[in-house]
Every structure is written in structure tokens, then in C-alpha cells.
Known about the structure:
- By secondary structure, the protein is mainly beta.
- The chain folds into 2 domains: about 15-110, Immunoglobulin-like, CATH 2.60.40; about 245-310 and about 325-795, Maltoporin, Chain A.
- The protein is built from 4 helices and 44 strands.
- It has a 22-stranded antiparallel barrel.
- The longest helix is centred in the first third of the chain and has 18 residues, at about 5-20.
- The chain is globular.
- The two termini are about 50 Å apart.
Amino acid sequence: MKKPMIGRYNRFYLLAALCWLSVLPAWAQFTISGSVVDADGAETLPGAAITIEGTYKGTFTKTDGTFQLTNVPSGPLSLRVSLLGYEPQIRELQPTQNETISIRLQRTAVVVDEVTVSATRADQKSAIAYTNVSRRDLNKLNLGQDIPQLLNFTPSIVTTSDAGAGVGYTGIRIRGSDATRVNVTLNGIPYNDAESQGTFFVNMPDFASSVSSIQIQRGVGTSTNGAGAFGASLNIQTNQLQEKPYAEANVSAGSFGTRKVNVLAGTGLLNNHFVLDARLSKIYSDGYVDRAFSDLKSFYISGGYYTKKSFFRLNVFSGQEQTYQSWGGVPADLLRTNRTYNVYTYDNETDNYQQDNYQLITSHELSRNWRLNVSAFYTKGRGYYEQYRPNDRYSNYGLPNVVIGDSVITRTDIIRRRWLDNDFYGSVFSLDFNSFKKLTMNIGGGWNQYKGAHFGEIIWARVAGNTNIRDRYYNDDATKTDFNLYAKAFYQFTSKLNAYADLQVRRIDYSFLGFNSQLQNVQQDANLTFFNPKAGLTYTLNDQNSVYASVGVGHREPNRDDYTQSTPVSRPRAEALIDYEAGYKLQTTRLAFTANAYYMNYRNQLVLSGQLNDVGAYNRVNVPSSYRAGVELEAGARLTNQLQWNLNATFSQNKIRNFTEYLDNFDNGLQEARQYSKTDIAFSPNVISGSQLMYTPVKGLELSLLSKYVGKQYLDNTSNESRKLDSYFTNDIRLIYSLKPKFAQEITFTLLFNNVFNELYESNGYTYAYISEGAVRADNGYYPQAGRNFLAGVRVRF
């Protein structure tokens, strides 16, 4: 079914391309040097970004506000100078010799929204691996699919979709770490579910249409708010002040009945102070898998008041989803004959959820050097998933058996709903200091509390007995409080050497219904305190080359199931991680190249082993020692003025040093243990690569070939070849045509052909191994992704 030669060819092709790109000529001739100062006070401005537009060439001003760009090509060029809090300036130049210039930046008339996320974002001084994704990048793929799919071609990322078409329940893994280990913030505000620690993008349909930028930090990253970053962070910013009024409409449609429509509008800056932005969206897809439809609705409203030194933003956004369940996957023996199989057939086997978010975001300049950012938030979530349960036991629901005459009925068909009704609220803050000389600093933190009501209802039974509609068969209220404080400092020792230190203390208090030593469900508490220090160095060799190194510590508490499905005796311990990162960056006029090496050393990482704990649950267990080690390569090259190639590749080893697997033995009713050494961590491919080859033959037209390779992944932690996902190599073709007629600001047509070579692949799965008749057997389930399909859309902006 698979084509192993494609995987080997792709690895060779990618390595050869990266080696070739690294020796591309710079085609450079002159040096441009100068200084950047404040137009009002004539003070020097260190840290200003200097870039030559349309190239990869760039640098930053030194502590004295000076800069130098070497090997600058001849001919006309646009030099862009930008610094947070100042109006960007573009200087047109046509160097025929070395030039020295002076640039005076004017402070922005009103505060920009970016100041509120600067404390939790990485920059060129942070000595960690990160990728910035702009609104323009998102728009190129934003035809209705979820945020994970839009980030698919960034380094070290693997995405999946339960329904197979990228709409509905989607997932993301970064360096092999799943969504429960990826910290997600919206405008600096924590978003991960407090109990499961996952992020459910299905609750934010079309949210990408309201996003101005996303920063992906790989590894521990910088200190942030919310769940501990244990593999990566996604820092999402929505707010971006648009000073001119606008209106926009997007319509797209494609395979599997997928369609999206949205409208956006904004007032622009009214009376130099007020702004209002709004979006309304609707997405529907039948899904690639049988009956796996998604019916999604959302809105976003943001109102702001701006002055020269302060601003206030109120964001209100909501998402409502109904998805037909396709969680069951496809059994291995049906993959060849019925790839779209769905085990669920009950017509209302659906997940139904609505989430409402409220954010009040403020920023205040206390002085030229000090700024205070304070935000408050409230998230309301409520919904259920409905299930048809054939021949289920009454005892599973705390119900007595039904007696009819001489017959005792112990089982019946039941339809149940499992509810979650939760409230999540809190505040985050940062106090930012900039000396405009050598020192910048952030002191910040946040407090939040989650209250979740979990309960189940019986809404129908074939033989009901004494059961009433909506009888609750369980109730479980949980409360989780999270508090953290951090302090970060960046110090410029010399014009070439910068250092940073980052210290965070995080406290978690969790109250939940769990088992005691007598296997009774009682209210229990868990209290944890973590200390997460980080430090790094960045050394700038010249305006083209720099190196960096950092070390960071992260901790992560067990999730809800780890606590509720265990006793205090068997309860797992918190996980710990020491993350070592080192890298090299090269930027020339036509080439940008980054190599980042990482070693993530885990202590007590939580994994599934198959072992039954003292309450009979297959809970996760701590493995004492495991690691992820690899190198991430990124390159971007302007081969010609019309042809651009962006490439990335991750080569890694992801190992558990010593692992014990427990197998249910159906022959004797016991469990059997098996020992392994240096096994692969589940769902952690050794090779991940992405390629975007973009050709612009004429102005306004872009043709792109988008390629993705993911190496084989194991479904559990045994490295067993019978329990794995095969490698896959997909190719998409994208056409974008933009024009600017007189009646509109812009009209853009996008056509996306996905998986043009019809690769049959599965991006996720599960396994259950056991012993029967003296042999080890495994029941594997897979989540097939769509074959050849398309999406087409039009965007009109006024």
C-alpha cells in the first residue's frame, strides 16, 4: 500500500537541496551603514529592525543606535526600518557606492496592539527556536480548514484530522508532542483546557480570519501564561489596529461538501480614538469519513479606545460546533477496502459544544521606559456528546436490574449524553521596561481559575424500568487554580553579545472527585509548585551570521484522567524537562538559513504502558528517563526574482531509555510484563520535512507546489513494526491570483489542489495489544486522510 522509495527519495532530495542552498552566491556589492534615532528627542534607538524589502537581508541597530548592512546589491531597493511603538519608515535607495544614512523614527500616534504580547513572545535575543506566521501567510491557505492545517508547512509539525478533510476535530504535534503539551495563548491569555490541557480548535471555527500573527516557539520556549509548555507554544494575536475602514467577504467551497462564508468589517480609527472590528463565519463539511460532518458557526467582535499612551480593547468571540463523531477510526483490515468506514451509525452520534470568550485588554505607558499591560478574561463553555450504547449494563449507570415476571434484565440499549459545563476566568499582566540602551526587562504573570461541572444523562433506554429522561448517572465538579509569576531580562554586554535570563514560579491547586484507598469516590486535592528557570546567549558574528545557545526547565502536572482514575498511591508524579537548544542563523540578500539543534531530556514523562492500576484503569505511568534529540533545518532562497523556495526538515531521535509494556493475557486473565530498551516514543517520527516552491510569473499571480513528508510513527512505545503508521509524502498545488479593480481594494482568487498524487495515508491511530492463544496480537485503528481533493475561494476586500 505504501511506497517506501518515495520516503528515501524525499530525504535525499531535501538534504541535497539544503546543502545546495547553503552555497548560493550573495550577489552583493556595497555597504549601507547609519543610525536610527527618535524623531522627537533625537535619542538613539537600539533594537530597530533594518530590512531590505523583497530579500532576506536584515539586521538590528546596536546599543548606540547604529547599524551596518554589508554585501548590499546594486540597483534600486527599499530599506524598511521598524521598532515597536514607532511608525515604520521606508527609505528608497539606489546604491552605487558605500552609503551612510540617518533615519529618524516618529512615535506612533496611538499605542499599537503588539505591546501586549511582547512579554511572552520570543525575538532575535531569545536564543530559542521559533517561527512567526503572518496574517498574509495564513490567508494563503485559509479556505475553511482549522488552524493546525494552516500551520502544516512550518518546521517540526505534524497535523491530523479525525474526519480526514481538515475540518472539525483536528490535531497538532510539534516535535512529537501532542496538543496537551503545547501551550496556547490568545493575546497573552491562556487558552488550553485546564483539566485535559488540550486545545480544541473545533471550538474556534474560522478563528484564523481574526488572527494577525502566530508565533510558534519550539521546546520549552519563554515563560508564558497557562499550561506548561512541554513541547512547544502557540502565541496567537488577534488584535491589530487598522486605522482605515474596511469590509471584506470570503467564500470558498470544495470536495466533501466543504464550504465556508464569512464577512468582516471595521470602522477604522474614529476621531483618532475609537475602533470597532467584527466577523461572522459559517463553515460546513461532510468530511472524508462516512457521516463525519462538521457544522460550525462563529463570530468575533472587538471594540477599542486608543490614545497616544494607552489603549483598551474588549474582545468578544464565540464558536458553536456540531460534529458527527469519527473518533473510532478504521480497523486495519478495512483500510484497503473501506477507508471511509465509520463505526458509528446512530443518526445523532454527535458532539455539541459552544464556547464564549470575553477579553478586556489594556496597556498603559507609565513613562518612556515603563509600560504596564493588564488583561482580564472569562470563558464560558458548555456542551455534550451523545452516544448510542447497545446492550449496556444497568450497573454501569447505578441503576437496578429490571424485573419483568420471572425474567431479570441486566442489560439494555441506552442513549446517553455526557456533559461539560465550565467557567474559566482570570487575569494576566506584564510590566515592561526598556532602557533604550543595554537592558530590557519584563515582570509578569497571571492568575486563573477553572470550574468544571461534569455530568451524564440518560435520555433514552429500550427497557427503561424506573429510569426517567435526563436521569443523571454521575456528577463531578472540579476546581483548578493556576498562578504564575515570571521575570525576564535581556542584557546587551557588547554590540555582539546578548544574554537573557528568565525565571518563573507556577502554583497549581486542583480539587476533583477521585478514588481513595478504599476505591470510593471522594473529593480530593492536588497541590503542586514548579520553578522554571531559563537562560541563553546570542552572539552576532556580523550582519549576516549569528549563533545562540540556551537551556530551559519546564514542568507539567498530570491531567484530569491521571488524577481521577487513580488513588493517591498510584497517582503519577509531575513531569520535568530540561531543554538544551543551540543554533546558527545566516541571512543574505537571497538566502536565509537556520540550523537549530535540541536535546530535550525528560524525567517522569507520562506514557501509556498498558498496565492496569489499583482502580482497574489503563492510566498513564511515569517513565524515569526519556529524551528527544534532533536538528531542525530551515532555508529560504530567492532563486530568481520570480521563484522562491522555502524548505524545512527535522531529523530526530525520540527515545524511552527503559520501558515496560503490560499485556492482558486472555488465556489466564492476568497481565504479562515485557521489558524494552531505547524504544521510540509513540507518534514521534524521526523525519519531518516541508517544502513550498512559489513561482510568480506575472504580478498578482502565484503558483506554488507544497510538499510534506512525515516518517513512520509507532502507535505505542514498543517500536513494534506491527503497530505503526507508515511514512507518507503529500503534494499540494496552490494557485493565487489577485487584482485591484477600481471598485475594490483587492480581489483574490485561490485554488488549492490537495494531495494531487492521491497518496493513501493515515496520520493518526491507536493500538491495543494482548495475548491470546499464546500469541501476541494487536488491534490497530487508523484515521485515514483524504485522497485527491480541492478547495477554491474568492476574497473581496473594500
